[in-house]
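User: I'm writing a tutorial on reading structure tokens. Could you give me a worked example: one chain, its sequence, then its tokens, then a sentence or two explaining what the tokens reveal?
Assistant: Sure. Here is the example chain.
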Amino acid sequence: MVPATETVLVVDDEQGILEALADLLREEGYRVLTASHGREALERMAEVKPDLVLTDWMMPVLDGPALIERIQQDPSLRTIPVLGMSAVDVNGLKRLHPGMEFLQKPFDIRALMKLVRRALDANPRLRGG
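And here are its predicted structure tokens:
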């Protein structure tokens, strides 16, 4: 179990995936916020600053790339780590966005948890930085 103070925002327009990820992360002890698209994610982030954003890439209203751009433009949000998820070939996305971590859907739960933990461990706000 992890400290319940670590908050993960999960963003996905597929309700089944959103609920499954939220349940899985809660079972691991994380506090979980959810949003069904990028605009809703930004609204959630205005209320509570998560320690990690786990976002789908292709969504209506505001997609993953646009959400990341907004996060990076906001000084109060730009240090929040973001993990991307996509059903398309993530190797191409990794080339377009070097340094960003992506999960290929469908993904292995252990791989997901390892990336979530690594991203949270690298968050300067959680390390006291």
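What the tokens reveal: The first strand starts at residue 7 and ends at 11. The domain at 7-122 is CATH 3.40.50.2300 (Rossmann fold).
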